[in-house]
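Hi Y.,

Following your request, here is the sequence exactly as I used it, all 216 residues.
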Amino acid sequence: MIVPIARRKFVVALGGAAAWPLAARAQQGDRIARRIENSTQVPLRLYENTREEHMKRRTMIILTGVTVLGLAVAAWPQLGFAQSVPWLGTWQLNLAKSKYDPGPPPRSQTLNIAQDGQNVRDTVQMIDAQGNVSTRVVMHVYDGQPHPATGYTDFDATVITQVDANSLIASRLKAGKLVQVGTFVMSQDGKTVTVSITGINVNGQPVKSISVYDKQ
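Below is the corresponding structure, written out as tokens. Let me know if you'd prefer a different format.
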């Protein structure tokens, strides 16, 4: 059937009129979407900036805490060391309370126990029965390993074991062989130290002694 030209124009116009609201709606939807996108970009950027600043502050706090902890850990051994060696100082041998088998005992003996880094230096000034003066040194290193001892004839190295804050065990060695064992015990009032030694001397003879030292 042939549609008249006027009718065709009407149909085309009607179709265009019907399609126009859809196109307008599509364009309006695009504009709304762009507005929503633009409106969310600013808060999103603000959120990202705030989150980045928060992470930076958190990182700085953690680094600061680690640094402070490191300083505390570095200082801790010094504090623990001072507390674990209460007998630091000068001690004088009390001959009246001491016993030596075999004798004779020394005329005098003084211990100077001092901190030496993380360890303890025990310097012994002695005048023996014949009047000979000598200086002897023992290092207290609590690592379970032998360390040199100078000035002694019976032994040349010691292994010091800390039992508690007021007592030690000393294993004395000569050329790598155990020859004597000693205990160091401080009194509860901190005024005396008693050193008990058993073993053999440089000549292979049994020795046993109890030396009592008074705090100066």
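The first strand starts at residue 89 and ends at 93.

Thanks again,
Q.
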